[in-house]
Amino acid sequence: MKVDQHVKPPFEAVVAQYGATVLRVTRAVVGPADADDAWSDAFLAALQAYPRLPADTNIEAWLVTIAHRKAIDITRAASRRAVPVADTPESPARERADAHDLDLDAAVGALPPKQRQAVAYHYLAGLPYSEIAVILDSSVAAARRAAADGIATLRRTYPLIDTARNRQ
Question: How far apart are the C-alpha atoms of 55 and 59, rounded to whole Å?
Answer without folding.
Answer: 9
